[in-house]
UniProtKB/TrEMBL annotation:
Family statement drawn from the similarity comment of this UniProt entry: Belongs to the 'GDXG' lipolytic enzyme family.
Keyword NAD found: no
Pfam hit, one: Abhydrolase_3
Organism: Bradyrhizobium retamae
Top-rank taxon: Bacteria
Protein name: Esterase
Keywords from the named record: Hydrolase
GO molecular function: hydrolase activity
Length: 334
């Protein structure tokens, strides 16, 4: 399919802004400047749903004694007596930009569409915090759900992990980590939206879409220079899940990709690797879309359609998990 006309118009605006100097590419900014620019542009792209009935700011402890911000979204207040299933969500932004605020519309929408709680994690960013800090923060957030989630009304037996872009990378790596560490809550689903998965950016889709389709090769290179300690980190599966030798016994995956995205080939490759390891995969490639389209509700209807599909997948996975835990009981909606 050809590029969606509304997406094409957006890309033209981006190009005009770059040529006029009104838009400065991330590699020409400091990390702090890039974060401010990313957060400022986010409301222009996405539709922010009304605030949910329950939204709570949290501080989650990490292994090194720090605390990271998190935000819990739910349609109604979860309780210990009726704990809610929960999606642990990691935002995108190349491990350098992105925030709880930039992804609030998406997380609100996912909570609305799934009927579950969504815990959005403000993991620490590079270059102040190099690899593997973001990954470890994600692991510590999942551990918090297992340890303290019930007190917050969250059901540690019905947990999914998810994220977009770099957040999808973290979610994929977190699923691998949870398989090895049975003390962690075991995810019932991994939701990977256009994740980065490969050690090296050498795919055909990088050659085709690495320039002119919003996510530029130069920007990806800049992100990784900020995040990685040295080049050897590229071959660590916690950064590049495709580098993991064994992908068996992982939770089912919903992989959402965009046709015109430099990352689309590695997403397809990961889906193939998971299927070869007998992991159930629902691969959805949205035609005419580009990287970040899930946060473009103001631009294309596909963003809301994809969000709704993710919500349905979460609701189904949580419902099935509840039924497995309560055999013979009447089916209940989440």
């Amino acid at each position: 399919m050809s590029l969606n006309p509304d997406i094409a118009a957006l890309l033209e605006m981006v190009q005009v802004g770059t040529e006029s100097g009104s838009r400065i590419p991330f590699p020409q900014l400091t990390a702090i400047q890039a974060r401010a620019d990313f957060d400022a542009s986010s409301p222009l792209l996405d539709l922010d749903p009304p605030a949910l009935a329950y939204e709570r700011q949290l501080a989650l402890p990490t292994r090194d004694g720090a605390a990271i911000d998190a935000r819990l979204y739910a349609k109604e207040e979860p309780s210990r007596r009726n704990p809610a299933p929960v999606l642990l969500y990691m935002h995108g932004g190349g491990f350098v930009v992105g925030s709880l605020d930039s992804h609030q519309p998406l997380c609100r929408g996912l909570a609305e569409d799934s009927g579950a709680a969504v815990l959005s994690v403000g993991y620490r960013l590079a270059p102040e915090h190099k690899f593997p800090t973001a990954f470890e923060d994600a692991v510590d957030a999942l551990a918090w759900i297992g340890r303290d989630g019930l007190a917050a009304g969250l059901d540690a037996d019905r947990v999914a992990v998810g994220g977009d872009s770099a957040g999808g990378t973290l979610a994929a790596a977190l699923a691998i980590e949870a398989r090895a560490n049975r003390n962690l809550p075991q995810p019932v689903l991994q939701v990977l939206a256009y994740p980065g998965l490969s050690s090296r950016q050498t795919s055909n889709s990088y050659e085709r879409y690495g320039s002119g389709y919003l996510l530029e090769r130069s920007t990806v290179d800049w992100f990784f220079r900020q995040y990685l300690r040295d080049d050897s980190d590229r071959d660590d599966w916690r950064f590049a899940p495709l580098a993991a030798e064994d992908l068996s016994r992982l939770p089912p995956a919903l992989i959402v990709l965009a046709e015109y995205d430099p990352l689309v080939d590695e997403g397809r490759d990961y889906a193939a690797r998971l299927r070869a390891a007998d992991v159930p995969v629902d691969l959805q490639v949205y035609p005419g879309m580009i990287h970040e389209f899930l946060r473009m509700g103001n631009v294309v209807a596909d963003a809301l359609q994809a969000r709704a599909a993710i919500g349905q997948a979460l609701a189904s996975a949580f419902r099935a998990a509840g039924e497995r835990r309560r055999p013979g009981m009447e089916r209940q909606s989440i």
